[in-house]
Amino acid sequence: MTTEMDTLATALYVRVDDLLKTSPELLPWRPPVGLAPKLTDAELVTLAVMQALLGFTSEARWLRFAHAALHPLFPYLPQQSGWNKRLRRAAPLIQHVTRALARDTALWSDDVWVVDSTPVECGRSRETVKRSDLAGWAEYGYCASHSRFFWGLRLHLVCTLHGLPVAFALTGAKAVEREVLLDMLAADPDLTRQRPGQILLADMNYYGRAFEHELAATGVRLLRPARKGEAPRAGSHLFKPLRQLIESVNQTLKSQLDLERHGGRTPSGVTVRVLQRILALTAAIWHNHNTGRPTLRSLTAYDH
């Protein structure tokens, strides 16, 4: 591993450990009587981020590498079944850590957001579709950006112009993007309560008079390209350079963090693996910001 990865892992472990000491209610539930886990939750979260940043899509390969290379840093490492169970139970904790790291940056107060969704493919063969535990949640959808059909889910992401995740949701492939956006904002009203005049850049799929009225009621100002037959909209000169940012963030999640190679086979498995990659992106931006790196979304120092 590089020195940069060691530094990020150390800083992340300390931050998560401090968070859990001040907010023990965030810890996964455990019975009051029983053996205490040998791998702490702070170590688990740190290892989950390292796995995503180092590009290990196979849990078996990751644990073989960790047992061989990380033993001095992590004296105890579980086997694959134990790792999988611990990681799935830690999904709420991963969400809390993601938000805590995002709030630790000055980027959290940015007054411009970008929103979009991207496919999360979960299977390709017809036999997989019929037998998968994801059937009923995962479904067939169409990706206009790549002109292809897929079977799986969609990750809806609201982020800052530097790519810092602000809100996200995982839905079926056919979910209506504008409805999901409203649900995300309604589920976390604190996001917009103290941000009057927040600007949101979106594509043409986020349209509708009722939708824009509901969005305005939350204090968010929507900027999007005009649809066919509509009059020109304000801020249209901003879209070409800025809309590409969300595509770039999605590409970072897919090409560098292997979003579509998550390997999940159950709803809880897919969910935690997607959260793991969002946390890895957030942790890298958090660390780059706090160490003064010029490119905040660069993962190059951590991916080898």
Could you please describe the fold and organization of this structure?
With 304 residues, the protein is α/β, with parallel strands linked by helices. Helix content is 46%, strand content 15%. The chain has a domain of 151 residues: Nucleotidyltransferase, domain 5 (2-Layer Sandwich). Strands 1, 2, 3, 4, 5 and 6 form a six-stranded mixed beta sheet that branches. It has eleven helices and six strands. The mean pLDDT is 90. Strand 2 and strand 3 form a beta hairpin.
Summed over residues and divided by their number, the pLDDT gives a mean of 90
Gap from first CA to last CA: 6 Å
Query: In CATH, what is the homologous superfamily of the domain at 110-260?
Result: Ribonuclease H-like superfamily/Ribonuclease H
Shape field: globular
From the helix content, strand content and strand pairing, which structural class follows? Answer: alpha/beta
Gross CATH architecture of the domain at 110-260 = 2-Layer Sandwich
- Quote the CATH topology of the domain at 110-260: Nucleotidyltransferase, domain 5
- Per DSSP E runs of 2 or more residues, the count of β-strands stands at 6
Radius of gyration: 20 Å
The percent of residues in helical segments reads 40-55%
Number of helices in the DSSP assignment: 11
The level-1 CATH class of the domain at 110-260: Alpha Beta
H/E element order: HHHHHEHEEEHHEHEHH
Biggest sheet architecture: 6 strands, mixed
Strand content: 15-25%
Query: Which residues form runs of ≥5 with pLDDT under 50?
Result: none
